[in-house]
Amino acid sequence: MKLIKAFVRTSKIDDVLQGLHEVGAPGVTVSPVHGVGYGYRRHLSGLSPNDLSKTQEAYKVEIVCRAKQVDELLKALADSARTGYEGDGIVFVTSVDRAMKIRNEEEGPEAL
Predict the structure, then answer these.
(1) Which CATH number is associated with domain 2-37+55-111?
(2) pTM of the full predicted structure?
(3) How far apart are CA 60 and CA 74, in angstroms?
């Protein structure tokens, strides 16, 4: 199993969710986040932990899926999130060692 974690523009979240739905994403978690990309030091002089006004709003999109689904989901996500401008976001794909459904304790891909 794999975890796809993406950070995308707020203006593209509807397109991203539609694109993922169209290719059969098994489930998606979306969280509003604040952050900055590479080169952040030039933008954040004097940033305090409570000062989010200097950071960019974005959405974090997380999908746990079977390994064979990664390429299709990654392409759908990137195609639907892309504007062609700096700040389009980034995607990470990592391994998931174990998953268990709380309701019935199913494990592995069956938990999805």
Answers:
(1) 3.30.70.120
(2) 0.85
(3) 14
